[in-house]
Amino acid sequence: MKIRYPKLRELKEALKYIFSRPYTTKYPFGKADIHPRFRGKPEFQQDDCLACTACAEVCPPGAIEVIDDIENKKRKVIRYLDKCIHCGECERICTCKSGVKMVPEFALAVYDRKDLVDTVERELLVCEECGRPIATKKHILWLIDQLQEKGAVQLGFIVMKLEELGIAEDIKTKVSFDKRQDLFTITCPKCRHRIILYDSL
């Protein structure tokens, strides 16, 4: 049997790697070399998250829980990292594109599961008719900011009628809708009760 000698290119590659540094790292005794696109721990961005619950809707393992406190008008979104499979769907589907980020942290071993809970809390707007949640205040304000220059027929800003939002007042009876271009209506997603909004800024 005739032995095939290695090609010069293969010999060159072998000699190069014999005298080069190893690819392995000294982790956990040294810093791990993490790729920028590595999908590590998903983390709520406290300043940006709208608590719109989009991430909870698409989470495959059901690692995100939404608790609406109607009485205190608060919405709490809780992520259980011990259930998370690091798929990145929450970051992909995020409404504002900055509410959830996959940070490069991957060492999540803890002694207590309570340390693997990430929470964000927002003020909740509730329908005056049926008492069920509409959206969070931060979500509505974000929509106002997004639509202020894109509203059709010069509707202007979308401003909540609800007094607790602090930027609107009740509209009295007999308002001429033909002459007011700063009026807008939204509907409660549950009972379909119409709420009239207008720009008070």
Can you give a write-up of this model?
This protein is α+β, with helices and mostly antiparallel strands and 201 residues long. It has 2 domains: 37-126, Alpha-Beta Plaits (2-Layer Sandwich); 134-198, no CATH class. Helix content is 16%, strand content 22%. The chain contains 4 helices and 8 strands. It has helices spanning 8-18, 54-58, 89-93, 137-147; strands at residues 41-44, 64-69, 74-80, 100-103, 117-126, 133-136, 183-187, 194-198. The strands form 3 sheets. The chain has a 4-stranded antiparallel beta sheet. It has a two-stranded antiparallel sheet with strand order 1-4. A two-stranded antiparallel sheet has the order 7-8. Strand 2 (64-69) and strand 3 (74-80) form a beta hairpin. The chain is elongated, with a radius of gyration of 27 Å. Residues 152-164 and 166-181 have low confidence and may be disordered.
SSE order and pairing:
Layout: H1 8-18, E1 41-44, H2 54-58, E2 64-69, E3 74-80, H3 89-93, E4 100-103, E5 117-126, E6 133-136, H4 137-147, E7 183-187, E8 194-198
Antiparallel strand pairs: 1-4, 2-3, 3-5, 5-6, 7-8
